[in-house]
UniProtKB/TrEMBL annotation:
Entry superkingdom: Bacteria
Protein name (Swiss-Prot/TrEMBL): DNA-protecting protein DprA
Pfam families named among the record's database cross-references: DNA_processg_A, DprA_N, WHD_DprA
PANTHER family in the cross-refs: PROTEIN SMF
Occurrences of domain Smf/DprA SLOG (ranges): 83-290
């Protein structure tokens, strides 16, 4: 069996297969995936343990069928793509630092592009002609200065940013579908150009159509890859603002282009600036802000997450011997931080995390941004 191979990785074929199977198993997300790897040492042992862990909640559980994984690997190979695992030396370091970073990605193109300094450019799908031109020009200028432009291949600002960057340098497209699905359809040629001349990344398995719930996950990858996110036209409550907020929560720079107060498409950017985002009028502003980025942003647009979200079982050698905490009476449909659960349960972090893992695998737990959890 061949997975197409991790990017210059050292995983055995058995472990690579088991990792894909683990992540595709029911209710296993990025956080639980990493906790399971840390707890059991490798994915082969973690997959074997899944039924027992989930079964302690009284619900039957089966890992992803092996046939499904074989079919996925074949589809990845057919698409000319490869797998990228979270511990590969080619996994983007900025993304790996983000809470809930995808443990496995599929990609086409030059993965080394993601190791270069990156800036995300996002904005309205129904952007004005002036904003489209501005996005194309600033992406061109940034790419010409050696910056990799990251965006989501959507209509409007995203597409313009990719086009401008391709004309002068490198760009990364992050899609909400499988690596073999082009969306929107009118960007099929652009997506192919990004894949052949730049880098195309997907978190979803091949063949996955872009559903509404996939776009916030796509947005966190865009924000996680870059030192900063620039928003060019965005309505209130738009996906672009979600990306900006995620960037702020990750401790990255948040930038926005101001617009007319009478144009609804500018309200989101103007609000970001009012909330502390850095006002940008050209590529020089972005370069000045990001060139000295050390992980401490000047923008104050941050909604800090909980430290417990990054809690690592591997740093607690006695965690494997801990039983799960009794937190059923504390959890509700209202999200709460894991730190708060630890305080209220009067037990240690490892016991709480094990209880959360059991609930998540059985489909009873939902994880939210900022390290919060709730009953599903």
């Amino acid at each position: 069996m061949s997975t197409g191979g991790p990017a210059r990785g050292t995983l055995s074929q058995e472990e690579a297969f088991a990792r894909i199977r683990l992540l595709r198993s029911p209710n296993v997300g990025p956080v639980s995936y990493r906790q399971l790897l840390a707890r059991f040492g490798d994915a082969v042992a973690a997959v074997e343990a899944l039924p027992q862990i989930a079964g302690r909640t009284g619900r039957p559980y089966s890992a992803a069928p092996e046939r499904r994984v074989h079919d996925e690997i074949a589809a990845v190979r057919k698409a000319g793509a490869r797998y990228l695992f979270h511990d590969s030396p080619e996994y983007p370091p900025f993304l790996n630092e983000a809470d809930g970073a995808p443990p496995i990605l599929t990609f086409r193109g030059d993965i080394s592009i993601a190791l270069q300094p990156c800036v995300a450019i996002v904005g309205a799908r129904n952007a004005s002609a002036a904003a489209i031109r501005f996005a194309r020009d600033i992406a061109h200028d940034l790419a010409g200065e050696g910056w990799t432009v990251v965006s989501g291949l959507a209509r409007g600002i995203d597409g313009a940013a990719h086009q401008g960057a391709l004309a002068a340098g490198a760009t990364i497209g992050v899609i909400a579908s499988g690596i073999d699905v082009a969306y929107p359809p009118e960007h099929a040629n652009l997506q192919e150009e990004v894949a052949t001349r730049g880098l195309l990344l997907a978190e979803q398995p091949p063949g996955t159509e872009p559903l509404a719930r996939h776009f916030p996950a796509r947005n966190r990858i865009i924000a996680g890859l870059a030192a900063g996110t620039l928003v060019i036209e965005a309505a209130p409550k738009s996906g672009s603002l979600i990306t900006a907020r995620l960037a702020g929560e990750m401790g990255r720079e948040v930038m926005a282009v101001p617009g007319s107060p009478v144009d609804p498409r500018s309200h989101g950017c103007n609000q970001l600036i009012r909330d502390g985002a850095i006002l940008v009028q050209g590529a020089a502003d972005v370069i000045e802000l990001l060139s000295g980025f050390t992980g401490k942003p000047r923008a104050m647009l941050r909604e800090g997450g909980a430290d417990s979200f990054a809690w690592n079982i591997a740093s607690h050698p006695d965690a494997e011997d801990e039983g799960p905490a009794d937190i059923a009476g504390i959890l509700s449909v209202a999200p709460v931080t894991v730190d708060e659960l630890i305080r209220q349960s009067n037990t240690n972090a490892s016991a709480v995390q094990l209880a959360l893992l059991e609930l998540e695998l059985s489909g009873q737990l939902v994880r939210h941004a900022g390290g919060r959890v709730s009953l599903g």
